[in-house]
Amino acid sequence: MRLDELPQSDRIEDRRGGLSGLPGGRSGLGIGTVVVLGLIGWALGIDPRLLIGGAEMMSKTGESQQESSAGTPPSDAMGKFVSSILGSTEEEWTEIFARAGQKYEPPTLVMFSGATQSGCGLAQAAMGPFYCPLDQKVYLDTSFFQDLERRFRACDVGSKTCQFSQAYVIAHEIGHHVQNQLGLLPKVQQAQRGMGKVEANSLQVRVELQADCLAGVWANRGQAKWKFIEGGDVEAALQTASAIGDDRLQRQSQGYVVPDAFTHGSSAQRTRWFTTGLKAGTVSSCDTFRTEQL
Fold first, then answer.
1. pLDDT > 60? residue 53
2. What is the reported pLDDT for 75?
3. Which residues face 185 on adjacent strands?
4. What is the 3-class SS of the chain, one letter each residue?
5. β-pair partners for 140
6. Could you tell me the fold of the domain covering 12-16+74-286?
7. Which of 52-61, 123-132, 249-258 has the lowest mean pLDDT?
8. CB atoms < 10 A from the CB of 289, how many?
9. Which residues fall within 8 angstroms of residue 199, CB to CB, at 6 or more apart?
């Protein structure tokens, strides 16, 4: 994948290596942390309130540092890569929305390590990347990319084609922001409240497959503008889409597949809808809600 001509985004909060892993509410201190500090204070003969107050001050300092990092693109290789992919999505979706007479409001992407607070609760590396519609931010622990290469074998470890697989993952999450901007996510969430689990899961699959298709739309239009796709890139992205399909993940974790428990779609569905967006390059081709055959 070629990155040299892609625009860089400054809508990144770099929380890697900070204090963002502390669980809890606004102060960043969870009950477990408070209990531990209380025991330490008791053992050392120090008023626990002093220790807890100091920890809260450190946590707030960490939070202010996280907030101030927004608008300053990371300078390391991974940070620059994420900034480039995010910047390309901003430019493409701004143009697509403008053609439809609408204004695109780009999301912020939060890079973190281990855990951090999001508008939707605690974000953890084990959850994988996700989009929070409440604060309109994408949360990404880039260790997920290592999982794609090693654990899921989603692309050839260490190969350059893995970059396009990583870009697909980011573009998928941006696809959820596009859905939110178009008013689709609120409608789906409202509908799911009145459904049973199986029905709600089925509707969620359509949401995720549409995000895969929208990632394909980004790839199509980005290729037309920047010619950033190189040999093997598309195959790697399709390999990634297949590797994180519900059926494959279920088979790996429990040895059998339960379609009613799918939330993202099967490997075949994910690859098919990404390919649909990649070939068509139009939002209208991504209407997963009006088709019977996914």
1. no
2. 87
3. none
4. CCCCCCCCCCCEEEECCCCCCCCCCCCCCCHHHHHHHHHHHHHHCCCHHHHHHHHHHHHHHHHHHHHHHCCCCCCCHHHHHHHHHHHHHHHHHHHHHHHCCCCCCCCEEEEECCEEEECCEEEEHHHCCEEECCCCEEEECCHHHHHHHHCCCCCCCCCCCHHHHHHHHHHHHHHHHHHHHCCHHHHHHHHHHCCCHHHHHHHHHHHHHHHHHHHHHHHHHHHHHHCCCCCCHHHHHHHHHHHCCHHHHHHHHHCCCCHHHCCCCCHHHHHHHHHHHHHHCCHHHHCCCCCCCC
5. 111
6. Neutral Protease; domain 2 (1.10.390)
7. 52-61
8. 13
9. 192
Mean pLDDT over 140-157 rounds to 79
User: For the chain, what's the residue count?
Assistant: 294
pLDDT band, very low/low/confident/very high, at 85 (cuts 50, 70, 90): very high
- One-letter amino acid at 98 equals A
Contact indicator for 160, 237 with CB cutoff of 8 Å:
no
Token digits of residue 228: 């950033």
Token pair belonging to 221: 């239009």
pLDDT in tens, 165-208: 999 999 999 999 999 999 999 999 999 999 999 999 999 999 99
- Residues 6 or more apart whose Cβ sits within 8 Å of residue 251: 257
Q: Tell me the pLDDT tens digit for each residue of 253-288.
A: 899 899 889 999 999 999 999 999 999 999 999 999
Give one word for 158, left, alpha or beta, with left for phi > 0 and alpha for psi -120 to 50: left
So what's the pLDDT on residue 33? 53
The whole-angstrom separation of Cα 2 and Cα 21 is 33
Question: Letter for the amino acid at 239?
Answer: Q
